[in-house]
Amino acid sequence: MKQPPSIVADLVQRLDDNLREDYEERAGIIEFDAAQPRELAEALALLDVLRRHPAALLGVTVLQVDLDGQPRFVVTTDVDLAHRQLSSVDGRVIRAVELSSVVRVRLGGLALLTRIG
């Protein structure tokens, strides 16, 4: 009987490429340097990624951008598309940011989303 995928494997598939790389590196370190079984190392690595990036499984990325000389925030499910769209309106990506901190700190706990373009 074929084993269903583990919850860790299922969740790891939802990570973006950068966080997936972070996860793989961390799992390897835990497995080899801490001499832990692979399954435990993978679970601990995923917990570590989620601790540092709590919105990692949402499937969205928040980018701080410069748009018309003003700092703005863009929520996207496709970072490459966001870069293309922003460059077409002379926008520039500054960095990726944590969604909850942007809404809480920068936007006073409430944000209105609207479409660009």
- State the end-to-end CA separation: 51 Å
Poorly predicted residue ranges:
none
Order of helices and strands: HHHEEHEH
When the domains are counted, the total is: 2
Global geometry:
elongated
Radius of gyration: 18 Å
The number of helical elements comes to 5
* Number of E-state strands: 3
Strand residues, percent: 15-25%
Give the strand line-up of the largest sheet: 2-1-3
Helicity range: 40-55%
Question: Please, what is the average pLDDT?
Answer: 88
- Content-based structural category: alpha+beta
* Biggest sheet features: 3 strands, antiparallel
Give a concise summary.
This protein has 5 helices and 3 strands. It has helices at 7-12, 17-33, 38-52, 79-88, 99-106; strands at residues 61-67, 70-76, 92-97. Helix 2 crosses helix 3.
Topology of this protein?
Blueprint: H1 7-12, H2 17-33, H3 38-52, E1 61-67, E2 70-76, H4 79-88, E3 92-97, H5 99-106
Antiparallel strand pairs: 1-2, 1-3
What would your notes on this structure say?
The protein has 117 residues and is an alpha+beta fold. It contains five helices and three strands. The chain has two domains: 7-52, no CATH class; 61-106, no CATH class. Helix content is 48%, strand content 17%. Helix 2 (17-33) crosses helix 3. It starts with 6 loop residues before the first helix and ends in an 11-residue tail after the last helix.
Defining key terms:
alpha+beta; 2 domains; 3-stranded antiparallel beta sheet; 48% helix; elongated
